[in-house]
Amino acid sequence: MKSLRFCLLACAPVALIATAPAGPIQLTSSVMVEKIAMVNGHEQTVLKAPKPVFPGDHLLFQTDYKNTGATAADHFVVTNPVPASVAYAGESTAGAEMSVDGGKNYGQLSALRVKTPDGQSRPARPEDVTNLRWTLATIAPGTSGSLKYRGMVK
Amino acid sequence: MTRASHRLGAVSLLVLAGLAATPAYAAGTASGTSITNTVTVNYSVASAAQTPVTASTTFAVDRKINLTVAEIGSTTTSVVTGQLAAATAFTVTNLSNAPLDFNLSAVNGAATHGGTDNFDVSNFKYYLDTDASGTFNAGDTQVTFLDELAADVSKTVFVVADVPSGRVANDVAGVFLTATGREGGSAGGTVGAALTNNSGTANTLMGVETVFADTASANGDGATNAAFTAGDDYTVMVALSAVKTSTVISDPFNNTTNPKMIPGATVEYCIALTNNTAVGSGFDATGLTLSDVLPVATTLVSGSIKKDGAVNGSGVCSGGTAVTDAVGYTSGTRTVSSAMADVLGGAKAALIFRVTIN
Question: Across the interface, do A152 and B22 touch by the CB < 8 Å criterion?
């Protein structure tokens, strides 16, 4: 069964746009929190603006990009460290590569391994992911897109 | 709850498996911790690398208030009438993601372990298990509240109260301990200020909001009030109990082999006393005198009275100090009687005598 997602009243993505205003690439970062709400008499999972946010909450991190320039942007590499208090929980936008070693090496999660405390190694799990990376070959002028992933507050 | 997503790539299977196996975190990330998601874009235009662009979002983890209180063990606390400073033990656990003080409040109430509450204890005091012995003793410190209980920490609290005199065996006094979360942040002094539940009010990204998430518990405690209650009770025990047994020692025909209770048989009677309070309880039975009237149609075996005998785990009596007939027997009333030495907590003692069947 699909879970419907509604944006409730005050849920404009919360964003802080950092500097680099002169370039053609517009970047917006936002986060939303999954909450259970009563919609039409039964429980639904909805996305809301953060706060309050507690340990165990499921977050959706989203980055929106737009090429506002006149020329194409090539070799567009988006790197996104997973915040320290967040456990990566999957559902990243297609094309993501993951790192479990702080961004030194990237690959598909199924191919990555981590060391166990006793010196052995085991397949990496989602919660081991430390960084995400998307590489887009070209962004034509005027086009935009979204890159997302889910995480859980530790 | 299933999450359907329309844009999963090759990693989907493993990712969903990860979603199902959510790790079991306890209180979790401390309130006030910043979570910052930063994205950096490196790109080129016509093969020339451009200045990277970044964007980020920051917010602070809020404070979720949750706690439990539970009695230690699952049985009543046995007490004697008039006992002072009788202790019941509880744990208080801070499940919030922040350190808190906890107010402590004990009240009389319904019985917790069956029985019907029919008296009240008084003079409630609270002690920490300072020497970690698991038992309330002189090594423990009295407190008025729990100070700076860290996230995910559980503390043992003894609730100590006085049992009134005049109570009889099987009287029950139920007690309930309520712990209420209060502001933490500075050790010692008095208990912190009351917490305020902010749920539903406007939130700021970097502010730390407090939301109550505790569940309803015992004695009418409701959910989301930053408090939790658990119950226990005191039951008055029979401090000193006596059991009388008899054993046929011999008869004129079978002697000591399978003797029968027939005229001429010798029968030994034992009155076994048990002090039911705990070993080392200090509740010694003192000033004891035991008396028993000989059964009809029997005659005391002269010189058979023994006091302060031993009683084994199966209730068999033996030994004891001889008491002369002159001291221990009143023929007019056919009564065997003797003073007994003090019987200490957990101890037993016996009064033994023999008769012949007329």
Answer: yes
